[in-house]
Inverse folding.
């Protein structure tokens, strides 16, 4: 049975490979950074098992490793390695391969979707191939492996070459590769710590009674602000819905929860366009394209975010209380 733990071990192996290659090239800070992250991925099960057994030491060591990652991150140089091929060679290869270049990338969502839809029906000798609780994530991990094999076939390159290129891109992205993990943890911390309840109490004290428009405006702006802080509208949504959406807009003013939720999320996406915390969208492209300004993508999107927010809020105000 394929379980999500196998994916974590595979990621750990790639991170340790990256650390080893950097150590050979005498890039000590990079080697230490990726080695620590690889050990965290590899040792997750042991930390959980130790917690259940009442042993807090592995968790404390993991916390020390996370702090060490934060200290090492500023020491990583932006440009890690030179290109392995000239611009003319890359252009000639792209022209030769044509649209087949998109095949490996398109295989990732396709294989993930197929596993999510049909994975529970696949079995060998009565044993399920995929563990049901993490079927989609396991399918995504399998899809990445399939895409790597397909990319090797399409580009007529060896698998070690593919791993080396992956390592080069990972070094180019640097610490920003960790932001999705950290932001997911931050959203859970906010939810568990009762931030939503605190916002509800504060909003009830400050907002004037009976002013549904102002309450809706605070909700929409709060979605943008928390998305900017956490880098993810999905992390901001439960906080704002628990604080303002459900207790005030839905229960007090009778807002339509479906319209409020969908258009509130779109307000949050405007915050995604404005924050470096959304590294996958705003920092990683700047790093891979080697833009002179690392925040150039955000600057280009700012006016679009403003226009989308204004239009979304106006339509939300017109529709949500109907």
């Amino acid at each position: 049975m394929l379980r999500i733990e196998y994916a974590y071990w595979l990621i750990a192996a790639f991170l340790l490979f990256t650390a080893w290659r950097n150590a050979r090239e005498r890039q000590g800070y990079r080697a230490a950074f990726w080695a620590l992250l690889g050990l965290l991925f590899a040792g997750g099960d042991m930390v959980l098992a130790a917690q259940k057994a009442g042993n807090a030491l592995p968790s404390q060591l993991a916390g020390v490793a996370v702090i060490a990652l934060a200290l090492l991150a500023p020491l990583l140089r932006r440009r890690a390695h030179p290109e392995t091929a000239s611009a003319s060679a890359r252009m000639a290869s792209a022209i030769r391969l044509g649209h087949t270049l998109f095949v490996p990338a398109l295989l990732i969502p396709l294989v993930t979707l197929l596993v999510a839809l049909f994975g529970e029906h696949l079995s060998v000798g009565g044993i399920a191939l995929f563990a049901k609780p993490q079927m989609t994530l396991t399918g995504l991990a399998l899809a990445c492996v399939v895409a790597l094999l397909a990319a090797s076939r399409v580009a007529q390159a060896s698998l070690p070459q593919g791993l080396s290129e992956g390592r080069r891109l990972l070094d180019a992205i640097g610490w920003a590769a960790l932001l999705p993990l950290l932001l997911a943890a931050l959203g859970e911390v906010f939810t568990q710590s009762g931030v939503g309840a605190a916002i509800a109490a504060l909003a009830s004290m400050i907002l004037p009674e009976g002013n549904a428009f102002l309450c809706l405006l605070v909700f929409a702006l709060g979605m943008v602000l928390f998305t900017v802080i956490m880098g993810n509208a999905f992390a901001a949504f439960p906080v704002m819905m628990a604080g303002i959406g459900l207790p005030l807009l839905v229960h007090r003013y009778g807002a339509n929860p479906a319209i409020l939720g969908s258009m509130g999320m779109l307000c949050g996406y405007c915050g995604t366009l404005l924050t470096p915390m959304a590294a996958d969208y705003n920092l990683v492209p700047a790093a891979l394209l080697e833009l002179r300004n690392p925040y150039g993508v955000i600057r280009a999107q700012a006016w679009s975010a403003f226009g989308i927010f204004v239009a979304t809020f106006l339509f939300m105000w017109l529709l949500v209380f109907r």
Remarks:
- Residues 22 and 106 are 30 Å apart (CA to CA).
- The first strand starts at residue 123 and ends at 124.
- Residues 88-157 form one domain.
- Strands lie at 123-124, 127-128.
